[in-house]
């Protein structure tokens, strides 16, 4: 804990007063944990370019990928104290900071892609982006993070029974932990940046993620089975510290929001291409890709919805809105 506090203080000092650069140029620093070939990183680069164009050089974004500035959770904490401007975070990780976002991590929540897009781009999704403002975090837009499925080292996952006895890496999300438990696996939170080594050393037997992330992380070099059960469609969220957002003029806020929205449209277009390319390249590398029957997986997690109705009726009401809005 002491080391963690020292780390945050050191980073905070580094970024102190970094919002304004030479000549009065507004500089916003954006850190994230993905590689530079990932579609989400490409979308951020697109956003930075569009912001510079819109503002005629008055605003720029500097991007620090590959966990240069810390893990996903550490970056969110830096946003909360205003020492970092922006980051990309999975909505699953945001559960601790914006509780209503938990609903987006529920398994088999959306009927299909069209239903998901309708929700995220509509009133429900836009309101959820603002749910973290009390915790100094404001969502600007969603990025498509595809659908998450299981990848494993020693055998494919054809049914929930195949997960019994397996240690499966999950994000720091209570919903993800409960989901893997309901499937019969042993959920094991591991930092994304440490996952390759954890797979190599047998600390975990597998993980779950979308095809581009599996490919760009090179986890497929260790895990040779990818079972496309598509249990969740958890979006990524581009967030900004409210402490930074509130420093911006109305014009600057407009420039930034427009650039973010345009980057989301760009990212949605390149994402589908990336999914196809990733699956093709992994097959070439010897990964066995299987498509299990989904009914058993759906039934295994239905109790999560029943539990939500009892323990968190407010969230259950949001889920009902989503499921009924098709």
Automatic annotation (TrEMBL):
Membrane-crossing residue ranges in chain numbering: none
Keyword annotations from UniProtKB, A to Z: Receptor, Signal
Keyword hit for Transmembrane: no
One example GO MF annotation: carbohydrate binding
Presence of keyword Signal: yes
InterPro entries named in the record: DctP_fam, TRAP_DctP, TRAP_DctP_sf
One GO cellular component term noted in the UniProt record for this chain: outer membrane-bounded periplasmic space
Any one GO biological process: transmembrane transport
NCBIfam families listed in its UniProt record: dctP, TRAP_S1
Protein's UniProt name: Tripartite ATP-independent transporter solute receptor, DctP family
Source species: Belliella pelovolcani
């Amino acid at each position: 804990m002491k080391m963690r506090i020292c780390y945050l203080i050191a980073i905070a000092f580094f970024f102190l007063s970094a919002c304004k650069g030479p000549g009065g140029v507004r500089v916003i620093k954006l850190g994230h944990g993905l590689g530079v070939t990932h579609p989400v990183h490409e979308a951020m680069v697109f956003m930075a370019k569009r912001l510079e164009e819109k503002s005629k050089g008055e605003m720029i974004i500097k991007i620090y990928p590959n966990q240069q500035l810390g893990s996903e959770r550490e970056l969110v904490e830096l946003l909360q104290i205003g020492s970092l401007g922006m980051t990309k975070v999975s909505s699953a990780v945001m559960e601790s900071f914006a509780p209503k976002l938990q609903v987006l991590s529920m398994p088999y929540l959306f009927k299909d892609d069209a239903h998901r897009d309708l929700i995220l781009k509509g009133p429900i999704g836009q309101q959820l982006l603002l749910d973290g403002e009390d915790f100094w975090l404001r969502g600007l837009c969603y990025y498509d993070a595809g659908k998450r499925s299981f990848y494993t080292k020693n055998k494919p996952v054809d049914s929930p029974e195949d997960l019994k006895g397996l240690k499966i890496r999950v994000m720091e999300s209570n919903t993800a932990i409960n989901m893997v438990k309901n499937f019969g696996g042993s959920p094991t939170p591991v930092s994304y940046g440490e996952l390759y080594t954890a797979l190599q050393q047998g600390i975990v037997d597998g993980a779950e993620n979308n095809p581009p992330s599996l490919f760009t992380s090179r986890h497929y070099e260790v895990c040779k089975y990818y079972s496309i059960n598509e249990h969740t469609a958890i979006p990524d969220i581009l967030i900004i510290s409210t402490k930074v957002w509130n420093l911006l003029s109305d014009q600057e806020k407009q420039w930034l929001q427009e650039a973010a929205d345009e980057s989301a449209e760009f990212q949605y277009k390149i994402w589908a291409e990336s999914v196809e390319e990733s699956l093709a390249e992994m097959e070439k590398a010897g990964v066995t890709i299987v498509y299990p029957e989904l009914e058993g997986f759906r039934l295994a997690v239905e109790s999560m919805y029943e539990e939500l109705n009892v323990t968190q009726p407010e969230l259950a009401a949001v889920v009902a809105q989503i499921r009924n809005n098709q």
